[in-house]
Amino acid sequence: MQKAQLHLAPVYIITSIIFILILVFGYNSIFRIKETESEVSFVVLKSYLERDVKSISADYGSVKTFSYSLPEGVEGLCFSEPNNKRNPLMLSTCPDREDDIAKIFTEDNPNNNVFLIGNTLKGTFKLEGMSIQCPEYMCFKAQNSRVSIKMEGLGNKALIKND
User: Fold this and answer.
1) Is residue 137 part of a domain?
2) Residue 101's pLDDT band (cuts 50, 70, 90)
3) What's the whole-number average pLDDT of the chain?
């Protein structure tokens, strides 16, 4: 009886090797899909921001609130305008600065003005045609991986508002 089962040993070994290879390749594929999904989410967010800023810029005086889905791991979205010197009366609507890390990122990346922030800098890019209500930078915290941003059309650009 044992001799009859001995010829099945190579089948079990080959089956085990195939099973392990399927697990390894499957794990690697899932990991790559998650990376690609994160990159796609970043590109989609950037294109939606560009589209919305462009559309409201020309509509002088109109105010709209836009909601954006953030990529995985992003806890907030910050906008910067380093040379922004706003009217002191407008500063009362600006929140207290809780995001010191955002200030560091904006100083380290002066050519970009949009920052996706998690426990580290998750992404950054340049968004043309926008201005912010607060001096230097302005951040929006994510709620359920979404952020709502109010914009006002100024005729030639969009003002990102805090209220």
Assistant:
1) yes
2) low
3) 80
Contact criterion met (CB below 8 Å) for 91 and 134: yes
Backbone angles phi, psi at 140, to 5 degrees: -125, 125
**Residue 71 domain-assigned?**
yes
For the chain, give the secondary structure using H, E and C.
Answer: CHHHHHCCHHHHHHHHHHHHHHHHHHHHHHHHHHHHHHHHHHHHHHHHHHHHHHHHHCCCCCEEEEEEECCCCCCEEEEEECCCCCCHHHHHHCCCCCCHHHHHHHHHCCCCCEEEECCCEEEEECCCCEEECCCEEEEEECECCEEEEEEEECCCCEEEECC
Within a domain: 12: no
pLDDT at 88 over 80: no
pLDDT tens by residue, 39-52: 888 888 899 999 99
Q: How many domains does the chain have?
A: 1
Confidence band for 94, pLDDT divided at 50, 70 and 90: low
Flag whether pLDDT at 1 surpasses 50: no
Residue 126 lies in a domain: yes
